[in-house]
Design a protein that fits this description.
386 residues, 13 strands, 12 helices, alpha/beta, 38% helix
Length: 386
């Protein structure tokens, strides 16, 4: 019954990547590097605390901004971990980071407003902008500049309709952590052109070279930065669907009004789990960071042994961004060959924008034994031979 489907969605069809994934299901020994979902289960203490809170009656609607104690916990975390002072009025709890991004775009944009999306980007960004009737404008980066956006490229993309820019560091998919110089350059451009910076801070734990710097902590940026946070990756809580928005109080108030017509409030039980996770973050997070640092380093070392494959030494996130241009294949062709011949599922770089051509994203959401098995298989492929 296509006539009942909005014209915005009638062109939808299976992507080439979904065809590759379907093909992978035909094999019973697939090693899956495609999912950005940590393979570890949420800490048992968090689960038990959430269950106890549910039994104690935390099964009702919460405030539309979220539990006050969770919002205060987020404020305390920014103060204690990053030296950033904010008010509880600047915080809204959301039903995941993706939901937060939709809310931000819906709150920020008028029809036809433009948002700068820096490539390679988290795949949903352009669609999240379009859902709010905005226009994504893509800004390229290259391996040669370390996948750090240049100020010249950023300014060249700005028009009178530009409203904001999305910043994601450490970056999914590249794993690159932007330098202080890059951050300050983006802040300067945002100030000069009166732009809002939407900081998608999803991998704050997973920084392996330098401490994480919240964009809102840069001089003069607190009033023009909207920060999106999430418990998904840092706390291994992807399925709980819980995140937050940190922004000036008037923006948060409007986002709440928008959300009251959407899901009203985030799930009460997930909020209680998040509160427990925050209170125990000093205990819970360091082992997770070291586990993924070790996995990334193992995968990186194996990449270095393969002809026609290269990668940056891990800087952040849980992903390895692999350069396969020397194979002479496109990203999609290479990913398809790897599935067919080695039974390994990766994501072609073009899933993350045009700047991703010639690359593959590997999520190290499998153990080191499987990482080694995967690279043993790759070594036997002709495209990675001498």
């Amino acid at each position: 019954m296509p006539r009942f489907i909005s014209s915005r969605y009638q062109a939808g069809s299976a992507t080439q990547m979904s065809v590759i994934a379907d093909r992978a299901r035909e094999f019973d020994d697939v090693i899956n590097f495609s999912l950005g979902d940590p393979d570890l289960t949420t800490d048992a203490g968090i689960i038990e605390a959430a269950a106890a809170d549910a039994k104690a009656g935390h099964t009702h609607y919460t405030s539309s901004l979220g539990y006050p104690e969770l919002r205060q916990g987020i404020v305390d975390m920014y103060r204690d971990d990053y030296g950033v002072e904010r008010s509880v009025d600047d915080v809204m709890v959301t039903t995941s980071g993706c939901h937060a991004m939709w809310l931000v775009m819906e709150t920020l944009l008028d029809d036809g407003d433009e948002v700068l999306v820096i490539e390679p980007y988290f795949t949903p960004y352009p669609h999240q902008v379009r859902l709010a009737r905005g226009v994504p404008v893509f800004v390229p980066t290259t391996k040669e500049n370390g996948f750090q956006v240049t100020i010249g490229d950023l300014e060249a993309a700005i028009t009178p309709r530009t409203r904001g820019v999305i910043v994601n560091t450490p970056c999914n998919p590249t794993g690159v952590q932007w330098s202080r110089e890059t951050l300050e350059g983006v802040a300067r451009v945002a100030t000069e052109h009166d732009l809002v910076v939407v900081a998608d801070d999803i991998y704050t734990l997973f920084t392996y070279r330098e401490p994480f710097v919240p964009f809102a902590s840069l001089p003069g940026m607190a009033e023009r930065t909207v920060t999106i946070g999430s418990f998904s990756k840092d706390y291994l809580m992807t399925g709980w669907r819980i995140g937050w928005i940190l922004a000036p109080a008037d923006f948060v108030s409007t986002a709440r009004d928008v959300n009251e017509n959407n899901v009203f409030t985030a799930p009460s039980i997930s909020q209680r789990a998040a509160l427990n996770a925050l209170e125990r973050r000093a205990e819970l997070r360091p082992p997770v960071k070291e586990l993924y640092r070790g996995r990334l380093q193992r995968a990186y070392e194996r990449v270095q042994r393969l002809p026609h494959m290269d990668a940056f030494e891990p800087q952040g996130t849980i992903y390895l961004w692999v350069d396969i241009r020397e194979t002479g294949l496109t990203s999609l062709e290479c990913a398809a060959r790897i599935v067919e011949e080695a039974h390994i599922l990766t994501i072609p770089g073009t899933a993350f924008g045009a700047s991703g051509e010639g690359f593959l994203r590997l999520a190290v959401t499998v153990g080191e034994e499987q990482i080694d098995e995967a690279f043993d298989r790759l070594e036997r492929m002709s495209i990675f031979g001498d």
